[in-house]
TrEMBL record:
Reaction(s) the record says it catalyses: L-glutaminyl-[peptide chain release factor] + S-adenosyl-L-methionine = N(5)-methyl-L-glutaminyl-[peptide chain release factor] + S-adenosyl-L-homocysteine + H(+)
Keyword Methyltransferase: yes
Listed EC numbers: 2.1.1.297
One of the record's GO molecular function terms: peptide chain release factor N(5)-glutamine methyltransferase activity
The protein's enzyme class: transferase
Name the record gives this protein: Release factor glutamine methyltransferase
Family from the record: Belongs to the protein N5-glutamine methyltransferase family. PrmC subfamily.
Organism field: Maccoyibacter intestinihominis
Positions contributing to S-adenosyl-L-methionine binding: 141, 182
Binding annotation for substrate: 182-185
Residues covered by the Release factor glutamine methyltransferase N-terminal domain: 5-75
GO BP: methylation
Stored InterPro entries: DNA_methylase_N6_adenine_CS (IPR002052), HemK-like (IPR004556), N5-glutamine_MTase (IPR050320), PrmC_N (IPR040758), RF_methyltr_PrmC (IPR019874), SAM-dependent_MTases_sf (IPR029063), Small_mtfrase_dom (IPR007848)
Job of this protein: Methylates the class 1 translation termination release factors RF1/PrfA and RF2/PrfB on the glutamine residue of the universally conserved GGQ motif.
Amino acid sequence: MRYREALAEGTAALEKAGIETARLDAWYLLEHVCHITRQYFYLNDTDELKEEEQQEYELAIGKRAERVPLQYIIGEQEFMGLTFKVNPSVLIPRQDTEILVEEILKICKPDARVLDLCTGSGCIIISMVRNLPNIEAYGGDISRQAINAAKENAKLNQTAVIFERSNLYEAFSGKFDVIVSNPPYIPSAEIPNLMPEVRDFEPHQALDGLEDGLYFYRKIIAGSVEYLNEDGILCLEIGCEQASAVTEMMKHFGFKDITVVQDLAGLDRVVRGHL
C-alpha cells in the first residue's frame, strides 16, 4: 500500500466511524507509524509502506475508529511547547490548562516553593519548572500510575520535581508559596454525557468531581490555609459555571484579590487569589 492510499483509506474509515477530524487524525497516525514528515509525504506519496507499517497503521486506525483518543494511540501530547507521555492512567493535557500555567508564571517568584495537587501527567508543574528552573517543585496524585507517568515526563523534559503518591496534602509537609491544581471538577451525573473519547477512555478518577463537581475545591481550599505561607497564592482551574462558587469558598477562607481568568473561548477557566 502506498502512502497516499493509506491516508485515503484511513481517512475514509475514520469518516465512516463519525470522527470529525478524520483526515487530520489519519495523517497524524500515518506520520507516527511511518516516521515521516508532511513534506516527505507530498514528495514521496507513491512510496510503499513496509508490511509491518501497514499492519500497525491499520491497527491504529481501528483503535481511533473505536474512539480511543489519538493521544493515547500515539502515546504523547504537546503542552506549553513540551512533549508529555500520556496513557489511560492520566488525563490528556488540554490547551485550556495552559491558561492556568501562564497565570501562575506571571506572579510566581523565581525561587518559590510550589505544590501541584492532582498532578496527573505532571504537565503543569513540569512546565513551570521549565520556565522557572529555580523553584522548589512538588507534585501529588492519588494514582500510583499517574505518579509513575509524571516521573517519566519529568525525566523526559529534564526537570527536577519531587512527585509523591498522595491523597491531596497527605504526603506533604511544610509551607508553600504557591499551590496550583486542576482537580476533578465534572459533576458525577454529567460523566455519561461526555464525548466517548473522554467518557470511555480517560480516567474517571481524574474527571469526577462527585455530586456537584465542587468536592475537591472544598478540600483543596480548606487545606491550603494550613499549607500556604503568608501571602501565599492558590491558583485553580475550574469548569463551566463554577467561578462564583469557588470564589465564595476562597473568600470564606480569607483569600484576597481573587481573580477569575477566562480562556480563549471566553469561558471562566482559572480562579486565583492570595492569603
